[in-house]
């Protein structure tokens, strides 16, 4: 028998995190906005009931916000990341291993717990998450990751399951799959869904019954494995070791358009510093850096410009100062006067483990620079990100993202810890 797998998913995650520290948000419609306070990316059940859709631009729903008293918040990623850590800590007693799939979803390997009532087991896990974090969850159970994912969706959408759907039962599995649109199956993209529809395959149940050879002919081994997983044959396991990353990016939209190169240099310097920090955190080095920036593509009447410059890194590096120098060269080559830049970013490619990087003849002793980067990371970890920065980054940062309605850092900054009066 395959090892049972569960997927636990936090409901309305960003909103639930905000409610954990601000009880005034409970029971009222709440939405959380994307970067620069642009669109709704998280909605409470009350907001969904009022017709707020995922991705609705906030300026188009102002009347609805005012009419219904919807609470609007900027994204607070520091809070959401810390709450994720707390959620994971609360499920550790209920799993052999786990794989963090996204900030609000975690796959759980239940090997060793097969002799228990697993539905009762995961319900106890949900209760512990709720006690420790106040965040409500749904859980899907299945013999494969795909079926656990489908079970989770069923648990979330259908109150019949009371937040836990067990797709190990073949009758329950068949009932769910016959009612699940093929385009909503994990791993089925829009193009594949259109091809399947042309063959008369519209549900997950019909995809399960697709001949394996036909699946491979149409969608290669990926679709073949998906069909097998829908039949209860696992093709993947819970990955407890994160696969090595092939690329990395740090990108941001500006709260205020940038029209001079000095300001853009400050922003790109910050992104390169952050990219170096991320590389070192994963024990990686990069061979190529690409810097890009562009105007607002959604304003066709305004002058449009975009630039992208790739810089080779010799030797391969994760040194933030070397990344800054490369990024600045890219900006200098791509800059043109007369445009209002609204977004920029850094992308790093060809990543390998730092200990495996090829050495060059003239790179010299790198020990001092390694120690400098370690000291920089230590200072910024202890006193807050960007406490120590190069002067070229600047200190005003007028271009930073808008977050006018951001909640306090309730769980990570001592000054923001809620105070309870006796």
Automatic annotation (TrEMBL):
Gene Ontology molecular-function annotations: damaged DNA binding; DNA-directed DNA polymerase activity
Top-rank EC class of the record's enzyme: transferase
Cited Pfam families: DUF4113, IMS, IMS_C
GO biological process: DNA repair; error-prone translesion synthesis; SOS response
Annotated Gene Ontology cellular component terms: cytosol
Enzyme Commission identifier(s): 2.7.7.7
Catalyzed reaction equations: DNA(n) + a 2'-deoxyribonucleoside 5'-triphosphate = DNA(n+1) + diphosphate
Leader sequence segment: none
Domain (UmuC) ranges: 5-189
Keywords from the UniProt entry: DNA damage, DNA repair, SOS mutagenesis, SOS response
UniProt subunit comment: Monomer.
PANTHER family hit by this protein: DNA REPAIR POLYMERASE UMUC / TRANSFERASE FAMILY MEMBER, PROTEIN UMUC
Similarity comment: Belongs to the DNA polymerase type-Y family.
Function as written in the Swiss-Prot or TrEMBL entry: Poorly processive, error-prone DNA polymerase involved in untargeted mutagenesis. Copies undamaged DNA at stalled replication forks, which arise in vivo from mismatched or misaligned primer ends. These misaligned primers can be extended by PolIV. Exhibits no 3'-5' exonuclease (proofreading) activity. May be involved in translesional synthesis, in conjunction with the beta clamp from PolIII.
Name under which the protein is recorded: DNA-directed DNA polymerase
Species assigned in the record: Polymorphobacter multimanifer
């Amino acid at each position: 028998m395959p090892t049972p797998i569960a997927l636990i998913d936090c409901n309305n995650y960003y909103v639930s995190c905000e409610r954990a520290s601000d009880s005034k948000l409970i029971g009222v419609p709440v939405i959380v906005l994307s970067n620069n306070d642009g669109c709704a990316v998280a909605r409470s059940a009350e907001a969904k009931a009022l017709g707020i859709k995922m991705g609705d631009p906030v300026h188009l729903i102002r009347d609805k916000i005012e009419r219904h008293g919807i609470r609007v918040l900027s994204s607070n990623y520091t809070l959401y990341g810390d709450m994720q850590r707390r959620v994971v800590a609360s499920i550790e007693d209920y799993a052999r291993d786990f794989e963090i799939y996204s900030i609000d979803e975690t796959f759980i390997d239940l090997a060793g717990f097969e002799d228990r009532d697993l539905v009762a087991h995961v319900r106890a896990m949900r209760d512990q998450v709720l006690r420790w974090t106040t965040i409500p969850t749904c859980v899907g159970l299945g013999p494969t990751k795909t079926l656990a994912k489908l079970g989770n969706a069923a648990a979330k959408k259908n109150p019949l399951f009371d937040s836990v759907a067990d797709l190990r039962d073949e009758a329950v599995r068949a009932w769910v799959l016959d009612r699940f649109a093929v385009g909503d199956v994990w791993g089925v993209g829009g193009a594949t869904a259109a091809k399947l529809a042309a063959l008369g395959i519209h549900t997950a149940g019909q995809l399960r019954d697709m001949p394996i050879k036909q699946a491979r002919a149409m969608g290669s081994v990926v679709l073949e494995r998906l069909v097998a997983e829908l039949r209860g044959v696992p093709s993947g396991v819970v990955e407890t070791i994160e696969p090595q990353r092939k690329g990395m990016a740090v990108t941001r939209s500006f709260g205020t358009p940038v029209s001079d190169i000095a300001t853009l240099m400050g922003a790109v310097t910050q992104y390169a510093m952050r990219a170096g920090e991320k590389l070192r955190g994963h024990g990686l080095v990069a061979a190529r850096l690409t810097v890009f920036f562009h105007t607002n593509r959604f304003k066709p009447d305004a002058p449009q410009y975009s630039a992208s410059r790739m810089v080779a890194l010799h030797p391969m590096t994760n040194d933030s100062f070397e990344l800054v120098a490369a990024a600045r060269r890219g900006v200098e080559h791509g800059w043109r006067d007369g445009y209002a830049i609204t977004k920029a970013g850094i992308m790093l490619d060809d990543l390998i483990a730092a200990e495996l990087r090829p050495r060059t003849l003239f790179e010299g002793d790198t020990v001092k620079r390694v120690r400098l980067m370690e000291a920089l990371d230590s200072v910024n970890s202890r006193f807050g990100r960007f406490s120590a920065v190069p002067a070229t980054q600047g200190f005003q940062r007028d271009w930073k993202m808008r977050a006018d309605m951001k909640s306090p850092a309730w769980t990570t900054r001592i000054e923001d810890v809620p105070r309870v009066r006796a």
